[in-house]
Structures are given as C-alpha cells and as structure tokens.
Amino acid sequence: MAFWNKKGGKNKEGEMSFLQHLEELRWHLIRSFLSICILSIVAFFFKNFIFDTIILAPKNPDFLTNRFLCNLGHKYLHSDVICLNSKPFQLISIQMSGQITTHITVALVTGLILSAPYILYEFWKFFAPALYPNEKKYVQGAVLWSTFLFLVGVVFGYYLIVPLSVHFLGSYEVSSQVINQINIRSYIGTLTSIVLATGLIFELPLITFVLTKIGIITPQFLIRYRRHSIVVIFIIAAVITPPDVFSQTLVAIPLLMLFEIGILVSKIVYREKQKKHERFMTGESQA
Q1: 47, HSE (Cβ side, Cα atoms, 13 Å)
Q2: What does the alpha-carbon distance between residue 240 and residue 195 come to, in Å, rounded to a whole number?
C-alpha cells in the first residue's frame, strides 16, 4: 500500500509507513487536546468576563441590543413597547454543586470554541499533503467561508435573537400565581441552542454552493420554490422569536437575504458548470 509523503502526491521515495502516519496523527491530536486544556484553564479564571459580560448580558436592560431598541422605541414610537428585558430576572441553581459544575462545563466549552481554529489547522496540516493543488484550493476556501458564515450567524443570533427570546420566555406567564424561577443551566442551554442554530442557518449559501456543484439542485429549482421558502422562513422566525410582527420581521429579513444570496450563488455555479460542459462538448466535436 502506498502512502502520501509530506510533499504531496504519491511517490516511491520518501513514502510514510502506516505506523508513521498514525504517529503523526497522534501528535496532531495531542497538540489539539493540549490547546483545549490550556484555553479551558484560561477561560476558567476569566469567570466574571465570560458569565457577566457574555452569557448573562443579554438578559440585562443595558445590553447593546436592548438599549438600541429601547432608544428606538422612545424616539419613534414614544413608548416602552420594544424595551427588552427592562426587568431582568434572577437565575437560580437548584443543586449543591450546580454552580461549580456549570462553571467547569462552560470553561471546557469555551476552550473548545476558542481552540477550534487551531484544531482545524492541525487537521489541515495532516490531510493537506494528500491533496492535489486544486483540491487544496477548494478545501481552503470551504473552510474559510464556512467559518466566516458560522461566526456571522452566531453574532446575529447572540445580538438579535437571544435578547428577543430571553425577553419573551423570561417574562411569559400562564398565571400571576406562577413565578418564573429559571435554572442557570436552562438559560445557558437556550442561549447555546439559539446561537448554534443561527450559525448553522447562515451556512445556507455554502450549502447551496455544494448542492449546485454536485448537481442536486439548480437555480431554477430554488426560484420555483421561492414562495414556499418565504413561508418556511417566516415560520422559523415565528418559532425562534416572541409572537409579535416586529420581532418576526426583524429575524425573517436576514434569512430571506440569505436565501436570495443562495440563489445568486447557485446561478454563478450553474453558469460555470454549463460553460465547462459546452467547452467539453466542443472539444469532443472538434476531435
């Protein structure tokens, strides 16, 4: 069995054995694991910043989005109707070890998130020698674009959807006799699920690129089902936001823009595929 050497391509000289590949993979995994451990330890000691400034901030009235919407409402509506989280709720921990367990878990997750670029780099170093130059170009582009779109989606979810959802879910009541006592783990779980979901949703243009590239969808297909997509987008916006038209529209507009960008990307990819097919057919006919 032939293996890829460090310079790329198959070669009888300088080939690496199976055990050498395993050894190299082991060191990549060790360095990745060490990066997670180191950054988790750092995150553990920055408890106040991570919890007070990042995780718990969206439920407070002085959070950026909350202040912006409240000022907007005062200026144009002369009302507090869109002042979010003006009465922040208190979170509780119902287990003896609940807070320290939450602290450790958040530190580990933070370390994993912060080390993700380095982990991708380590795996890229391991797999890159086995790729041809054109494959490296496509893989590099896919990794960069997927990371960028995911981060944009996370920021969108954190600054827009999380404050809206926290305001609605934290203040909603079925009766004045029932008091909301929200567990810290429930709050963190809600925040995490929202930002991860929006991060994945923002991968739509890249997914459209890949599906068009391999021939599963076409721009004509996306255009034909545009109306259906609009309905689905507004349903998604209604599910992840409070039940008012303003919030739903605020979330639906970026999602509609993503869908339109996906159609544009699909058109570009489809056009390139058509050109390549025409050049191939022309070459065959001339031959």
Answers
A1: 9
A2: 11
Rounded to 5, what percent of the chain is helix, strand, coil? Answer: 75, 0, 20
Express each pLDDT in 161-197 by its tens digit: 889 888 888 888 888 888 888 999 999 988 888 888 8
Please give the Cα distance from 131 to 188 (Å, whole number).
40
Residue 219 and residue 247: Cα distance in Å, rounded? 30
**Of 24, 6, 23, which is closest to residue 15 (Cα–Cα)?**
6
Using an 8 Å Cβ cutoff, are 63 and 162 in contact?
A: no
Please say if the pLDDT value at position 5 is more than 60: no
Burial class (CB in 10 A: 0-12, 13-18, 19+), 283: exposed
pLDDT of residue 2: 42
- Taking residues 198-203, report their average pLDDT: 86
Give residue limits of the domains in the chain.
Answer: 203-282
Residues in CB range of 168: below 8 A, 6 or more apart:
241, 242, 243, 247
Where are the strands (E) in 101-214, listed by range? 182-183
Measured between alpha carbons, how far is residue 89 from residues 61, 69, 183 in Å?
11, 19, 11
pLDDT band at 243 (very low <50, low <70, confident <90, very high): low
What is the torsional sign of CA 264, 269, 275, 277?
negative
Angle at 219 between CA 217 and CA 225, to 5 degrees: 85
- Measured CA to CA, the distance from residue 81 to residue 167 in angstroms comes to 12
DSSP state of 173: -
